[in-house]
Structures are given as structure tokens and as C-alpha cells.
Write a structure and sequence with these properties.
By secondary structure, the protein is an all-alpha fold. The chain has one domain. Helix content is about 70%, strand content about 0%. The protein has ten helices and two strands, in the order ααααααβαααβα. It has a two-stranded antiparallel sheet with strand order 1-2. It is globular.
């Protein structure tokens, strides 16, 4: 099924997510202390990213199963690596092996990377991924993992509005929407105006909120005490 151009630009464009991955890998590369072997992660992530770009470019309307699972594996790998980073930072702090200023810098970098990592996971798993959301009709999409405020607006829309390719009734989330979910979950430790609907997204958001709490309450708080 073809997708109107306005909707295609909003939903199937992969470049915002690619930019997020590059920012995340840059953060790993410039972190002053290599808590875990970052070089291997960066190399593997770059190779996987290049394969996705080559096989399934930014605005492609077709996605193979291999590319689909490769994209999911990349986002999960980045997420798991960042969670390991949180554990190592806490361990170094408890053992007194890291200076307060260094922990503050590392914690800030891990916090930003955590937002990007979880946003990528949310973006890849919701309703079959970005390509499915862009190319399939709403009736053909898998079960939604998130309920956005725009979904309520669509339910209230008239039949004429629903048939219009430019109306809010045909709105579908893009990467920035999932980045917003991850950001607000890290700041408030709870969903904001977007509601998780499935068990897997509730677990993921719970893990992300817990990691954000650890970074802010334990790591940064303890580091401030060290600086004092």
C-alpha cells in the first residue's frame, strides 16, 4: 500500500534515529574512562548501521526480515551496553576508585546515551517498526505498544477526516515521538502523556526509569558529596 508523501516523511524517515545512534557512539568514544570495551561496541555498531543504511535506506518502503531484526539487535545492544555502564559506574563509586568529578561527567554521558538507547528500542518495536507503521494501514498493523494522545483525536475524528491523507486522524509516530517518551521517562520515572500498553514496554520503561533513578539519586548524589 502506498503512503501519502506527508505521512511518509513523518514516519518512515530513518535519519533522525541514525543521527541519534551517531551521537550515542560519539559519547562512548569521548568518555574519559573506558569502563567497558567500547571500541568493539563502536566497531560492531557502525558495521550494523552501515548494513541497514545500504540494504534499507532512509525512506525505503520495503524492509526485509534480516534488516528488521538487525535494527532491533542494534538498538537492544546499545541499550544493554548502556545499562552495563550504569552498573560499572555504581561499582566504581562504591569502591572509591573514581573521582567525583569524573563520575559526574560519566553519569551525565550515560544518562544522555540511555535516553537515546531506549528511544531506539521503543521506535523499533512499536507496531512492527517504522517501515510497518509507514506502509501498512492501521487495521493491518500489529498491536500498539504505546497509546499516544493523537490516537484519541483519531477516534473522535469523522469519517471524512479519517479518509484525508493530511488530517490528524492519519497521524503516526516518528522517531522524535519515541525520543520524547524516553526523555520524559528518564526525568519523571513515569509515563507522561503516552501510555505503555503491553507488558514488554512496561518492563522496558520500568528498567529505564530505575536506571535513571540510580544515576540521579545514587551516582550524581554521591559524587556531589565527594566534591563537597
Amino acid at each position: 500500500m502506498s503512503v501519502p508523501e506527508p505521512m511518509r516523511r513523518r514516519t518512515s524517515n530513518r535519519w533522525p534515529a541514525f543521527v541519534g545512534i551517531v551521537i550515542m557512539l560519539t559519547i562512548y568514544a569521548i568518555t574519559p574512562q573506558n569502563i567497558v570495551p567500547r571500541l568493539w561496541l563502536i566497531v560492531i555498531a557502525v558495521v550494523m548501521l552501515l548494513l541497514i543504511i545500504i540494504v534499507n535506506p532512509g525512506r525505503s518502503g520495503v524492509e526485509s526480515n534480516i534488516v528488521r531484526w538487525l535494527a532491533i539487535a542494534l538498538s537492544l545492544m546499545l541499550m544493554m551496553f548502556n545499562l552495563v555502564d550504569v552498573v560499572f559506574i555504581v561499582a566504581d563509586l562504591i569502591n572509591g576508585q573514581t573521582l567525583g568529578r569524573l563520575v559526574l561527567l560519566e553519569a551525565a554521558e550515560v544518562w544522555i546515551a540511555n535516553v537515546i538507547a531506549f528511544s531506539l528500542v521503543y521506535w523499533e518495536i512499536d507496531r512492527g517498526g517504522p517501515i510497518a507503521r509507514a506502509t501498512l494501514s492501521r487495521e493491518s498493523l500489529p498491536t500498539a505498544d504505546f497509546k499516544f494522545p493523537q490516537d484519541d483525536e483519531r477516534a473522535a475524528a469523522s469519517e471524512v477526516e479519517r479518509s484525508s491523507s493530511t488530517s490528524k486522524a492519519n497521524w503516526r509516530p516518528g522517531y522524535v515521538d519515541y525520543l520524547y517518551i524516553a526523555l520524559t521517562n528518564m526525568m519523571a520515572f513515569t509515563p507522561n502523556d503516552v501510555v505503555p500498553l503491553t507488558a514488554r514496554t512496561k518492563i522496558l520503561m520500568g528498567i529505564q526509569g530505575l536506571s535513571g533513578f540510580v544515576i540521579l539519586a545514587l551516582v550524581i548524589g554521591r559524587s556531589v558529596n565527594i566534591l563537597a
